[in-house]
Design goal:
The structure is a homodimer. The first copy, chain A, is mainly alpha-helical. Helices cover about 60% and strands about 5% of the residues of chain A. Chain A has 9 helices and 3 strands. The radius of gyration of chain A is 19 Å and the shape is globular. The first copy, chain A, starts with about 30 loop residues before the first helix and ends with a helix. The relative contact order of chain A is 0.13. The first copy, chain A, binds a DNA duplex through helix 3.
DNA sequence: ACTATCAAAATAATCGATTATCCGTCAAGG
DNA sequence: CCTTGACGGATAATCGATTATTTTGATAGT
């Protein structure tokens, strides 16, 4: 049996997303582990966008057999990070200005909608999760000199945004938002090694979170939309500058 | 066939979805064919919602080996029609009132948004595609006595809704809408053997399409939203009546 | 030179068998 | 009795080898 401790509190609300990575891991299936490793490799930019994934090389690189490799790649297709074509194999999804703009637009639409629903439906457990995620995020420093802090920050940042909308009671919507965050994070990881100086991102997050738990619908939604929009603009500039498009 | 659309990009104009039967088919990979067969089996209700998928039995039923079977199932996971858990195998996604209501809500949000964008951005080619899809759909009769007409109608209906929003220039959004349509169609296929008598669905489609090509944004969006909403209400009633929830 | 054609190499897809994991059952101990 | 843990059948995951497809590169014909 899997002791899924839905424990004590949080009747309606779901368990706060895994705080410190995964603990019970290590006995997952090879395919699952591969999916994680590949996902990180793609989002971090280690595997270049648009590049072909040679099964034989990948098999040797990761020291696994074909079955779990395909299994792992199949999951990344669901994530939109890998594309596939019959008899032609796999390829890391391309990045482009249009793609980034679509992601930003959809995040504005969907995440804001999900936030509104969360404020409408979320219980006190949700509020607590939001404040905790905010606190954790704001207490974590990004030091461009130490890559592990960047990874950690990305993880907490992702978690904050997901927690914010986790009260909406719409699993499919949450899934879509999660995918969009994944796609968006790849752009940030590739193009931003540090937070742009002209923004106080921590404060933006705080304003959103406080508006959310105060159920100030219009304010919180507006702040979130602006936050996403600014991030998009910021990334677009970097993409235009550094990118080879 | 199901247009699997995450492709690279579909700038503004799109090739009209497969009109003259299937030419390039017949030499796909076994995994692909399986994915299609399984998708149809699930959407049509042949494979009961929530039921476990035994790999050995499936292997014998379809007379294939494990590799392509897993390959096919992996794609249905992307479609949200199959769920998977490590070491526990595959299972047809469950249906529920909550799930149906979420699908309906999200369709209202996403499809309407996509339609608005299509009207804003779509070119004359898109308009033509919409009118053609409408014509094809309205010229096709649903005869409850002949299942093949139901399948045909479902295909054209799906195509109409996708064509309607195909001008939005947002591949990811189209992908999401396509998934939602898939999920929604399963409910209709399972619970409706005939169009409910109190609605003139053909006329609803015509109003939406005409409003769309006339670029009457508010009117068309409103019609589409009501259309989706009515379908949702309709399905919910059938689900409550016939379903064993 | 240019294109078309075919053979060989590279790559992807599939298979059958093996290994690992889960799940129900039953016996021993508390 | 109830709990606990070990056995065994059922099921899933993985592997190594085989088959099918695509791509490459060389050759011949126009």
């Amino acid at each position: 049996m899997v002791p899924h401790d839905d424990g004590a509190f949080a009747p309606t609300t779901e368990d706060a997303p895994s705080s410190s990575g995964f603990l019970d891991d290590g006995k997952n299936t090879i395919g699952s582990q591969l999916a994680s490793r590949l996902r990180e490799a793609i989002i971090s930019g280690e595997l270049q966008a648009g590049s072909k994934i040679n099964l034989d090389k990948a098999r040797k690189t990761f020291n696994v057999s074909l079955s779990p490799l395909r299994e792992g790649l199949a999951r990344l297709i669901s994530d939109g990070l890998v594309e596939f074509e019959d008899n032609r194999g796999y390829r890391v999804s391309s990045i482009s200005l249009a793609n980034l703009e679509e992601i930003t637009t959809l995040r504005e639409e969907f995440e804001v909608f999900a936030l509104r629903e969360s404020m409408r439906l979320g219980d006190v457990g949700w509020e607590g999760n939001v404040m905790r995620a905010l606190h954790r995020l704001n207490r974590t420093e990004r030091d461009a000199a130490r890559p592990e802090t960047l990874e950690r920050w990305e993880e907490l940042h992702r978690e904050f945004h997901l927690t914010l909308i986790s009260g909406c009671g719409k699993p499919i919507l949450l899934h879509f938002c999660s995918l969009l965050l994944n796609l968006n994070d790849r752009y940030r990881r590739v193009f931003l090694t540090r937070t742009s100086g002209d923004r106080n991102v921590s404060q933006e997050h705080s304003e959103i979170a406080q508006g959310a738990v105060a159920r100030d619908l219009d304010y919180a939604c507006d702040m979130l939309r602006q936050h996403i929009h600014r991030t998009g603009t910021n990334l677009r500039n970097h993409l235009a500058t550094k990118g080879t498009l």
